[in-house]
Amino acid sequence: MEVDKKRHLNVVFIGHVDAGKSTTGGQILFLSGQVDDRTIQKYEKEAKDKSRESWYMAYIMDTNEEERDKGKTIEIGRAYFETETTRFTILDAPGHKSYVPNMISGASQADIGVLVISARKGEFETGYERGGQTREHVQLAKTLGVSKLLVVVNKMDDPTVNWSKERYDEIESKMIPFLKSSGYNVKKDVLFLPISGLVGLNMKTRVDKSVCSWWNGPSLFEALDAVEGPPRDPKGPFRLPIMDKFKDMGTVVMGKVESGSVREGDNLLLMPNKAQVKVLGLYCDEDKVKRAGPGENLRVRLSGTEEEDILSGFVLSSIVKPIAAVHEFLAQLQILELVDNAIFTAGYKAVLHIHAVVEECEIVELLQQIDPKTKKPMKKKILFVKNGAVVVCRIQVNNLICIEKFSDFPQLGRFTLRTEGKTVAVGKVTQLASTSASSSTVFA
């Protein structure tokens, strides 16, 4: 089968724990006909038996028992639905603090974000204030390249809210300055809308005026349909960062095509170990396809390599212009919040998350500080910086990693640094080190 002409977008649901992300995701699948009434009735009964009536929609997304018992999402749920113009893959990212690395791997594959906020009295405040997940998620989403955001104000049907325009406006007015400070162009890239994920209002069709007289904007499905996807190059060099791998009649890898196209029978390079591999089969969602382009989530069956020789973060790339593999690179970093007021200086160690790569890294040199107002480098020599600083530095990793300059491939050139489970900085790769024949490092 050929991939149909509908465009494909990955959407990640982010937001504070209990804002209703999984419920909203479940409701979308139900409304778009991905789940039938009988399954819903089964989930409803299960949820009732656990006296968790309001969780039954979330069960569609949260399929493992631990998630159902705790009402928390741990894995990144995968699900698919279609609107008039677009096929969507939902990446249901966990909101809970200890699962932020999972949230990063979800968001790094996403094209658009749906930030779910609870309008219930007290719940918006908890998620938004310091320590709440709403802020960290927005900052991460922006850095990880989620350039378009739908801010969905959920639980509008709650008795404490009752579709109140005042409450909706209050949340919008508090969120806008924060979204601006996180780098979003609110006029162009952000859209707010009210919904009820639990009862499914203003989702597939616009909410009835009898329920919400003041809303004149789109429903969630209409808004998703209208979102512009990121620019992608089907003719560019092939890049597919590997998220996962398994054995199934040979070696199968999974990931999202970030650039270029692939056909059954193609010869590719598996980087960084330079293994020549051949594409035996391509699968998009559940269907076998002959070819696939950028933006598609694929499973690729390969010959020429063993499953145990592949790590997540390896990249399938074209032989003509393979991706670079480096031990060192230059980057522009924004320091968000260092753990325990640590000082950020040469010798600082952290965990680097870049596309599917997770590696320990060390900051080996701070090169210059950037003035956040003028965006220009400051003259003075720096030895250390504090929270909020923007700095250009040299970063080293122990194992070879495949990355690109942000200016060439944004998806493969932006990253986060984490320490003790907290995101301490977000950054973009500005230059790659190519190690020449001698031991000196040259930056390209």
From TrEMBL:
Domain Tr-type G: 6-232
Domain of life: Eukaryota
InterPro entries referenced in this protein's UniProt entry, alphabetically: EFTu-like_2 (IPR004161), G_TR_CS (IPR031157), GTP-eEF1A_C (IPR054696), P-loop_NTPase (IPR027417), T_Tr_GTP-bd_dom (IPR000795), TRAFAC_GTPase_members (IPR050100), Transl_B-barrel_sf (IPR009000), Transl_elong_EF1A/Init_IF2_C (IPR009001)
Pfam families hit by this protein: GTP-eEF1A_C (PF22594), GTP_EFTU (PF00009), GTP_EFTU_D2 (PF03144)
Gene Ontology MF terms in the entry: GTP binding; GTPase activity
Key words of the record: GTP-binding, Methylation, Nucleotide-binding
PROSITE patterns named among the record's database cross-references: G_TR_1, G_TR_2
CDD domains according to UniProt: EF1_alpha, eRF3_C_III, eRF3_II
Family: Belongs to the TRAFAC class translation factor GTPase superfamily. Classic translation factor GTPase family. EF-Tu/EF-1A subfamily.
Function of the protein: This protein promotes the GTP-dependent binding of aminoacyl-tRNA to the A-site of ribosomes during protein biosynthesis.
Full protein name: Tr-type G domain-containing protein
Taxonomic path: Eukaryota, Viridiplantae, Streptophyta, Embryophyta, Tracheophyta
